[in-house]
Design goal:
CATH topology of the largest domain: Rossmann fold
Shape: globular
Strand order of the largest sheet: 12-11-8-13-16-17-18-19
Number of helices: 15
CATH superfamily of the largest domain: CoaB-like
Bound molecules: ligand PMT
CATH class of the largest domain: Alpha Beta
Helix content: 25-40%
Distance between the termini: 29 Å
Length: about 400
């Protein structure tokens, strides 16, 4: 991977001790590293630790005449080719989201033109807090910022849940991912999983999609250097590292979130989700009681996210999926034309052990004038091949 000048911002949190290992790994990978610490960070790790590991003086204050006489904060902001904030506390995220510049780290973030990767670390309740989530949404809409994590699991305070900082090895992998990958620098939006269409407060219509195909594609696109937003229906999978997951339940929510993500900037849209084509016309307010031997539900058509995105004037390169049990090629190519897609990935889901809710798949990719078979293979391998293929077609597509 290309060696880069990385400015590591360390903010106050128990995960700050892991950033020492991160500096060691970044240096070992050949990067130049300079560290800026907030006052909060100094309560957990001393600047001397980072100075010893980075081989560079550590900056802690904006108003330090001696340090400013060396490399001033504006020079520091210009020096950085990548800003990496790990751990990023709830307080720092709030201040970054508001564009504040009241200490050295926020000032550097304001002054730099380098991409800023934010690696959150905090207690699970702080992460779930509505104000933190509002600040996260602001950062998601900021084209200069990308969020890596957080991870789930046991926390230093004894709680369990989302908010753990990604491990240093994972952060290094994300920092180095795909500089020259098939989707380097591209903004990708992917839909995955099923949708659930409520019948009453306790029942819904859905399908067997596990989300695995979409999550594998999100990881592969991230590995290939893309910034990935994954709009996911309800699944039990962990968020892929470095991918911005936006959970939804219904088809209408999927359209809303996917459209919002595309509005934020999107070069490539991939729809793997198994979206319910219909929803109950009325969702009963109370649990429906058994009354007769039969029961009829009136269903209405759901909006089509893929067709809506492909039909935009500013449509990105669009790739659809088609799960079929008969006449696979015929139905898939029909969807390719009807929905005005650049590519479609056809799944024969009649084969046992492939397609829905399994680790493996076999697909045929169609585009105007050609097709290619991939698999049977693991969904992870199929996703990697698909990303390479899509990257080649995207490179040739007229802008
Ligand atoms: O999730 P897994 O268990 O890993 O399984 C993967 C999968 C089998 C679900 C996946 O590989 C797949 O084939 N997804 C497409 C499912 C499908 O049946 O799509 P469709 O033929 O109904 O729709 C065609 C395309 O339009 C799809 O890209 C779909 O996401 C999109 N669509 C459909 C309807 C709708 N209302 N909105 C949409 O965006």
């Amino acid at each position: 991977m290309a060696a880069r000048r990385i400015l590591l911002g360390v903010t106050g949190g128990i995960a700050a001790y892991k950033s020492a290992e991160l500096v060691r790994l970044l240096k070992k990978a050949g990067h130049e590293v300079r560290v800026v610490m907030t006052r909060g960070a100094e309560a957990f790790v001393t600047p001397l630790t980072f100075q010893a590991l980075s081989g560079e003086p550590v900056r802690t204050s904006l108003l330090d005449p001696e340090a400013e006489a060396g490399m001033g904060h504006i020079e520091l902001a210009k020096w950085a080719e990548q800003v990496l904030i790990a751990p990023a506390s709830a307080d720092f995220i709030a201040r970054l989201a508001q564009g504040m510049a009241d200490d050295l780290l926020t000032t550097v973030c304001c002054a730099t033109e380098a991409p800023i990767a934010v690696v959150p670390a905090m207690n699970q309740a702080m992460w779930r807090n509505a104000r933190t989530q509002r600040n996260i949404r602001l950062l998601q809409e900021d084209p200069q910022v990308v969020l890596w994590g957080p991870d789930q699991g046991a926390q230093a305070c004894g709680d369990t849940g989302p908010g753990r900082m990604l491990e240093p090895e994972v952060i290094l992998g994300l920092a180095d991912a795909g500089d020259d990958g098939a989707l380097a620098g591209k903004r990708v939006v992917i839909t995955a999983g099923p949708t659930r269409e409520p019948i009453d407060p306790v029942r819904y219509i859905s399908n067997h999609s596990s989300g695995r195909m979409g999550y594998a594609l999100a990881s592969a696109a991230r590995e290939a250097g893309a910034r990935v937003v994954l709009v996911s229906g309800p699944v039990t999978l962990a968020a892929p590292a470095g991918v911005d997951v936006r959970p939804v339940i219904t088809a209408e929510e999927m359209l809303r979130e996917a459209s919002r993500a595309v509005d934020e900037g999107c070069d490539l849209f991939i729809a793997t989700a198994a979206v319910a084509d219909y929803r109950p016309e009325i969702c009963a307010g109370d649990k429906i009681k058994k009354t007769g031997e039969t029961m009829a539900l009136s269903l209405v058509r759901n909006p089509d996210t893929l067709a809506t995105i492909a039909g935009r004037i500013d449509a990105p390169f669009t790739v659809g999926f088609a799960a079929e049990t008969t006449d696979v090629a015929h139905y898939a190519t029909d969807k390719l034309q009807r929905k005005k897609l650049n590519m479609i990935v056809a799944n024969d889901v009649s084969a046992p052990g492939l397609g829905f809710n399994s680790d493996n798949n076999a697909v045929t990719v169609f585009w105007p004038g050609g097709h290619e078979l991939i698999g049977p293979d693991s969904k992870a391998n199929i996703a990697r091949r698909l990303v390479t293929m899509i990257g080649e077609h995207l490179g040739r597509a007229p802008r």
